[in-house]
Write a structure and sequence with these properties.
Helix content is 40%, strand content 22%. It is an alpha/beta fold. The strands form 2 sheets. The protein has a 10-stranded mixed β-sheet with strand order 2-1-3-12-11-4-5-10-8-9, sandwiched between helices. Strands 6-7 form a two-stranded antiparallel sheet. It binds nicotinamide-adenine-dinucleotide. Nicotinamide-adenine-dinucleotide is lined by residues 14, 18, 74-77, 90, 93, 262-263, 284, 287-293, 299-300, 303, 341.
C-alpha cells in the first residue's frame, strides 16, 4: 500500500477551523478507503511570524519541497497589517509558490445544482457548469523587467513589462492539455495576439505544442476580451481555458463568481513533475483568512474540502475518490445544509463549520 505524504499548513483566521474539517475527511479516506496519508502539520503566515519572526521558516519550506502535496488554509489578518512588507503573512505564501516554481494555477468553476440560484447569471446558463481555468502564475507582466515608476521629463511614468519565453508558454500549455485529456478534451487558449507580440508568440507556441503532442485534444483560440464576454454569455462552451498571468487573474475571478460564494472555491498550483511523475503541488481555498468571522464557527469548510479533492485527483491519482468527495459535497448541499455564507434571502438556520464537515462525512459513509 502506498502512503502519500501531505504537509498541512492551516495558517491564520478561519484557516485552522476549515482545516480541522479536512483532517476528519483525510482520516476517513485512510480508515474507509485504504488510502493512508502521512500527514505533517506546520505554520505559515502570521502564526509562523509569531513563533519564528518569519512567515515561513526554512524548515517548513524544506518540508514543502519533499512532500507529495501541500494543503494550505489561509494567511493574514488585521494583527499583521502594520508589519514590514518583507515579513507580512502573504510573503510566506508567495515564497512557497516561488520556490516550488508553481507555474500553473488551476481554478475550477463548477456550479453545484443546489446553488445555481446563487449565481448572478440565469440558472440555465450556469447549471451544470464545470470549467477549469489554467493561469500562468510565475511570469508575464507581474514579473517582467523593466518595471517601476520613472521620471520622464516633467512627469513620472509607470512601467510594467509583459514578457514570456517560449519555454514558459510551452510548459503551461502542456499542463492545460494534460488536464483536458482527463476532462472534456477541449482547450481554449486566450491572449490578445491582435495587439500584443507576446500574444502572437503565445498562440504560436500553443499551436506547436498541440501539433507535436496533443493533436487528439480540441484546441481553439480566443482574444481575452472576447473570452470575458463569452464567460458571462455562454460559459458552458468551455472545458479548459489556458491563459497568461494577467488575463488569468481577471478571467478566473470572473468565472469563479459565476458559481456563487467564495466559501466554495478551491484551487491548485502545480509545478514541474517530481520523481514519482506527479507535479509539485500546493492546494488551497481561494478565500482568505476571513477575520470578520474567525473563531465563530461560521466558516464554510467546503472550499478547503474541495481543495483536498483536487489533491486526490492531481497529486494522488485518485480521480474516483475525488469524484466521491465532490459528490458527497453535492449531496450535502442538495439536502439543504447551508453555512451562513450560503444563506439565501429566504433565510433559515445556518449550520456550523463542524456540522458541515460532519455532514460531508455522513455523505461519504452513505457512498460506500
Ligand atoms: P477573505 O476571503 O478573507 O474574506 C472576504 C469575505 O468573504 C469576508 O466577508 C469573509 O467572511 C467571507 N468568506 C471568506 N471565506 C469564507 C468561508 N470559507 N466561509 C464563509 N465566508 C467566507 O478576504 P479579505 O477579507 O479581503 O482578506 C482577509 C485577510 O485574508 C487579509 O489579511 C488578506 O490579506 C488575507 N487573504 C489571504 C489569502 C490567502 O491566504 N490565500 C487570500 C485572500 C486574502
Amino acid at each position: 500500500m502506498t502512503t502519500h505524504s501531505l504537509l498541512i499548513l492551516p495558517g491564520d483566521g478561519i484557516g485552522p477551523e476549515v482545516m480541522t474539517e479536512v483532517r476528519k475527511i483525510i482520516d476517513w479516506f485512510g480508515a474507509k478507503r485504504d488510502l493512508p496519508f502521512d500527514v505533517s502539520e506546520d505554520l505559515v503566515g502570521g502564526c509562523a511570524y509569531d513563533k519564528h519572526g518569519t512567515p515561513l521558516h526554512d524548515d517548513t519550506m524544506a518540508k514543502a519541497q519533499e512532500v507529495d502535496a501541500v494543503l494550505l488554509g489561509a494567511v493574514g489578518g488585521p494583527k499583521y497589517d502594520d508589519l514590514d512588507f518583507s515579513v507580512k503573512p502573504e510573503r510566506g505564501l508567495l515564497r512557497l509558490r516561488k520556490e516550488m516554481d508553481l507555474f500553473a494555477n488551476l481554478r475550477p468553476a463548477q456550479c453545484f445544482d443546489a446553488l445555481a440560484d446563487f449565481s448572478s447569471l440565469k440558472k440555465d446558463i450556469v447549471s451544470g457548469l464545470d470549467i477549469m481555468i489554467v493561469r500562468e502564475l510565475t511570469s508575464g507582466i507581474y514579473f517582467g523587467e523593466p518595471r517601476g515608476i520613472f521620471k520622464e521629463g516633467n512627469e513620472r511614468v509607470g512601467i510594467n513589462t509583459q514578457r514570456y519565453t517560449e519555454s514558459e508558454i510551452d510548459r503551461v500549455a502542456r499542463a492545460a492539455f494534460e488536464l483536458a485529456r482527463r476532462r472534456g478534451n477541449k482547450v481554449c487558449s486566450m491572449e490578445k495576439a491582435n495587439v500584443m507580440e507576446s500574444g502572437i508568440l503565445w498562440r504560436e507556441v500553443v499551436n506547436r505544442v498541440h501539433q507535436e503532442s496533443y493533436a487528439d485534444v480540441e484546441l481553439s483560440h480566443m482574444y481575452a476580451d472576447n473570452g470575458a464576454m463569452q464567460l458571462v454569455r455562454a460559459p458552458k462552451q468551455f472545458d479548459v481555458i489556458v491563459t497568461d498571468n494577467l488575463f488569468g487573474d481577471i478571467l478566473s475571478d470572473c468565472a469563479a463568481m459565476l458559481t456563487g460564494s467564495l466559501g466554495m472555491l478551491p484551487s491548485a498550483s502545480l509545478g514541474a513533475p517530481m520523481a514519482n511523475g506527479r507535479p509539485k503541488a500546493l492546494y488551497e481555498p481561494v478565500h482568505g483568512s476571513a477575520p470578520d468571522i474567525a473563531d465563530q464557527a461560521k466558516a464554510n469548510p467546503i472550499a478547503c474540502i474541495l481543495s483536498f479533492a483536487m489533491a486526490l485527483r492531481y497529486s494522488f491519482d485518485q480521480g474516483d475518490e475525488a469524484a466521491r468527495l465532490e459528490q458527497a459535497v453535492e449531496s450535502v448541499l442538495a439536502s439543504g445544509a447551508r453555512t451562513a455564507d450560503l444563506m439565501g434571502p429566504e433565510g433559515g438556520t445556518p449550520v456550523s463549520t463542524s456540522d458541515m464537515g460532519d455532514a460531508v462525512l455522513r455523505a461519504l459513509d452513505a457512498s460506500l
